[in-house]
Structure formats: structure tokens, C-alpha cells
Amino acid sequence: MIRILLADDQALLRSTFRMLIDSCDDMTVVAEAANGEEAAELTEAHRPDLVLMDIRMPVVDGLVATQRICATPELAHTRVLILTTFETDEYVARALEAGASGFLGKDVTADALLAGIRTVVGGEALLSPAATRALIGRYLSGTGTTGESPTGSLGSLTDRERELTALAAHGLSNQEIAERLFVSPLTVRTHIHRAMMKVGARDRAQLVVAAYQQGLVRVR
């Protein structure tokens, strides 16, 4: 069962998300927060698998709350999925650098949202659609960083790990990488996981951030 915390200052949206999520056999909402401060406190109290986080909220915004959650060692298993109407270069980059594992616009369909939750909880970054990936690339390759990021060097990766990290940074899923390189998805997952461990990345999203920051991948 995937345990989810909802963080949004609009009660109607939280109610809508709760009904959608609770209708799934493999998901449940364990708590709701109306601002970033509550989100951080309730996450520590309930330790959900995933926080569905809005960016613009009172008291403390979603980016600060995300950074607090992801910087807490006891919450290392908790993933943050940003859901917002503000899909700008800076917000996307700052959300990922703060430790978020994915980013979706609030115009996402119900099926895409549920699939996104499962993707992030499963250990992959949610960096689609392609337009969002392009925003991340433009920002990180241009104006630099604003938040915490992996401290390890990509220089410690093997050639194969660098190759797969580069493909992941371009937004390809494990399945897409496997099809391109004629290997199994499990092989891809293993190499990506090893790369994350070497770089000190919390998850796949942070590995992608490192790939842009350290010049492994550049925007065309």
C-alpha cells in the first residue's frame, strides 16, 4: 500500500485528490496539509511513502518544505512529487534540486497522476513531459543552482554508468534505455542505482541534476 500525504492550500483540490487516490486499491491518503510548515511536520509524524506537494502555499512554500523533508535522514524513504500550475524554469529546477523526485502540472489527467505516483514511489524520476525536461536542462545549464545537490563526482562512474546516466538525463525511462541498448530493464536499473550511490544522489532526479551541473549532458 502506497501511503500518501497531500499538501495544498486549496481544500477542494485536496478533497478531489483524496477521492481519486483512495479509489485505488494500492494507495491511501494518510494526512493532509494546508501549508508547507504543516507538510513538513506531518511528513515527519506519518512518514508517508510520497508527499504530493504544491509549490505556492502560505507560511512556508512547497520548495522550502521539500528541502526540509529531503534533508531529514529519518525521511530518506519518503519521495516528493511536485504538483503545481507554475511550470517555470526556476521552479522546476529548484524543486528537483531541493530533492523532489518529480514534477507535474495541475492540468495532468487522473490516470497520469496515478501513474506518476507509482513511478516516483518505484524509484524513478518523473521528468516528463518532454517540455518539462527541456526547462530543467535550460535552467541548470544556464543560470546555475539554487539548492542542495549531490556532492559526488561523475568521474567515479564507469563508462557504462556514464552512458546510462546521460540517457536518463535526457528523460528516458529504464524501459526506453533498455530498448535502445538491447539490454534488460533490470540491468539498466542496476547501473543507474550504482551511479546514484557513487554520486551520492538521493534518487534518479538528483542524478539527473548532477549530470547537467557537471557537464555530462548539455542542452542542444
Query: Any idea what the radius of gyration is?
Result: 17 Å
* Main structural class: alpha/beta
N→C terminal distance? 41 Å
Q: Strands across the major sheet, in which order?
A: 2-1-3-4-5
Average pLDDT metric: 84
Instruction: Outline the biggest β-sheet.
Output: 5 strands, parallel
Pick out the low-confidence regions.
none
Shape: globular
Number of strands: 5
Quaternary structure classification: single chain
Share of residues in helices = 40-55%
Q: What percent strand?
A: 5-15%
What letter string, H or E per element, gives the SSE order? EHEHEHEHEHHHHHH
Number of helices, counting only DSSP H or I runs of 4 residues or more: 10
Q: What are the main properties of this structure?
A:
alpha/beta, 220 residues, 5-stranded parallel beta sheet, 10 helices, 12% strand, single chain
Helix/strand layout:
Elements: E1 2-7, H1 11-22, E2 27-33, H2 36-46, E3 50-53, H3 62-70, E4 79-84, H4 89-98, E5 102-105, H5 110-121, H6 130-142, H7 159-169, H8 174-181, H9 185-199, H10 204-213
Parallel strand pairs: 1-2, 1-3, 3-4, 4-5
Helix pairs in contact: 2-3, 3-4, 4-6, 7-9, 7-10, 8-9, 9-10
Brief sketch in words of this structure:
It is built from 10 helices and 5 strands, in the order βαβαβαβαβαααααα. The chain has helices spanning 11-22, 36-46, 62-70, 89-98, 110-121, 130-142, 159-169, 174-181, 185-199, 204-213; strands spanning 2-7, 27-33, 50-53, 79-84, 102-105.
Can you offer a commentary on this structure?
The chain is an alpha/beta fold and 220 residues long. 50% of the residues lie in helices and 12% in strands. The protein is built from 10 helices and 5 strands; from the N terminus they run E-H-E-H-E-H-E-H-E-H-H-H-H-H-H. It has helices at residues 11-22, 36-46, 62-70, 89-98, 110-121, 130-142, 159-169, 174-181, 185-199, 204-213, and strands at 2-7, 27-33, 50-53, 79-84, 102-105. The chain has a 5-stranded parallel sheet, sandwiched between helices. It is globular. The mean pLDDT is 84.
